[in-house]
Amino acid sequence: MTGPTDQAQAELLDPSTERGARAMLSHLVEAGDHTLSALLAADPAPEVLARVLSDSSPEFGAARLRAARVDTRASAAYAIRQGISVLMPGDAQWPDGLIDVAEAPVCLWVDGPLDLSRLRWSGVSIVGSRAATAYGRDIAAGLAAGLSERGYAVVSGAAFGIDVAAHRGALAGGRGGTVAVLAGGVDRTYPAAHGPLLAQVRELGAVLSESPPGWAPQRHRFLLRNRIIAALTAGTIVVEAGLRSGSLNTARHAATIGRPVGVVPGPVTSMLSAGCHQAVRDGVATLVTDVAEVLDLVGRMGQDAAVRPCAPAAPQDLLSPADQVVWAALPIRAATSVDALVFATGVAPGALMAALTRLELAGLAARVGADWRRRAS
Amino acid sequence: MTGPTDQAQAELLDPSTERGARAMLSHLVEAGDHTLSALLAADPAPEVLARVLSDSSPEFGAARLRAARVDTRASAAYAIRQGISVLMPGDAQWPDGLIDVAEAPVCLWVDGPLDLSRLRWSGVSIVGSRAATAYGRDIAAGLAAGLSERGYAVVSGAAFGIDVAAHRGALAGGRGGTVAVLAGGVDRTYPAAHGPLLAQVRELGAVLSESPPGWAPQRHRFLLRNRIIAALTAGTIVVEAGLRSGSLNTARHAATIGRPVGVVPGPVTSMLSAGCHQAVRDGVATLVTDVAEVLDLVGRMGQDAAVRPCAPAAPQDLLSPADQVVWAALPIRAATSVDALVFATGVAPGALMAALTRLELAGLAARVGADWRRRAS
Question: How far apart are CA B86 and CA B212, in angstroms?
Fold first, then answer.
């Protein structure tokens, strides 16, 4: 994204256009309104706007109160001055993933160059507890960096704890970029401590919100914001979550619309991993422990299948169980007789001689006269 | 178990009895021998013993070599002097769980008072890495103690790390007792450092082995011993396991015979939890985090279902989502007008008044003249 076009800016100031009407509606009606979503799915936004503003719809009483008090045109002009653009369904940059959201966003206020349309296929949401431990923050940053290195964008909510670790890891990864979905306006720095981080995200990735610039992050907007985080990407990873963590709410949103959910396990002594463990036990999430397993979960079919981790095999591990028994019975220093080996292993003499010959060929046993010893592998 | 009866002792010295022949066979043929198991399933042990000792069966050549060298009668007499008894299929104390083992033990050498027959229904195997971390040892001891307190016996292998922590925890729990399954003879103290522990287990629980007293613990006997640990109990819990841990071998044995397998998660940064995590990802094990969840996995139907953990709910959590929005918008100190609330929440005036009334009835909102504020819950 290279900033809003002149045409999009002109539309934004004109409520008779689809974009201008949607921008105005996003001031008047709270995000996640089911009635408004249904109306916008059926009719052009200028018509819907007219209906909302008419006295005939009591459910939009609050919208008319706001319309009388908020200068939505000034708000749009401010957004243009700030380089904030408004995306709407049908735009090339409109995120593919939002198609599954029941209460679709009326529009998105966006600040930053990252192309949002690709998040559905090469974006991963990483969320978790605000009160994260050092363990959780390290894992979140490591996963985000690894995903970013492989070209995946990391989406999160810019909150304390896991969110900010994920954004920072993604920026460090350097390739995939990162997207912060805010509960208030994209120009609001919340929490205040994350000002420098959000400035970086605006410059290198994108900050977006359903709420217009300047709007305060409020409790219910946080919950609604979670459905956007879940819907934008190919899948959601929860790094640390207590039993009632808001990040489990994000995970449920993802599962509801059929997106894979991964959770990172942790010590069972940590209440901040309890929500993750329960999600695995409930069958709503897959346990993931590293970037490869995250890619296996969310990755593009046939491209990112995780290599199953395994420890390197020792030569004797490749032997049959019976040959292993004989190998284990061979002394390492002094050699021993076939009779003694028969006695020690319980393997019949003929089978034992055959096993010794196989071990000799494999370089794992050596003859010393008539006796045998193990050979260093 | 109150020690072997006089009759059982007499049988042990007489290879023409089922018990005596099986005890002798356990000296001559290594544990886990499929041919011997099949023969014993079809014919009385004295007949099988005669066949093994006859020259007509080349697969038992090693057994005849051993028969010429080992004084099995002296070994049986030694066992009797030590208070070690020999259990065989058909005995009241024979463990129910062994019925599912393909290569059934020929007999079990047992030292200790614990009734082995009940392990199938009130025993849990706890296994894991020898190189366990403090985290793993604490969890193993805690699970074992909790199970023991609830009357469950804990079965393990007396190895360093998780095994010994499980035995100690079970002894501390005080009720269920503990059983050590050894790879060598029950009188062998292996590892040597666990002498005092094994003495306690012999006194309060049971030590058992497929191998006769005095026999050395050998590599292949450890692997075979795992199938006994898995088969004895209602289920197996792996606390810490690297990717190639022997305790995963025990878990596979348990899964093969249809016994539930639980694994305890840990930090993804610990290679000692990697095997546990992989078992969950592979779908062969259930993630468990506490005693209740272990009981849920292995427990007697209808008796031990785990209470799903949940954090306590705050009063406002019981509100509908719409009422929560209004509650969150209420100021805590100064009161605010209905108009301002309509503006802040986007909720229509009629719906907002209804919500405020509900909140007032729930004790969560208070009127101040015409204004409203939040009430401390």
Answer: 9
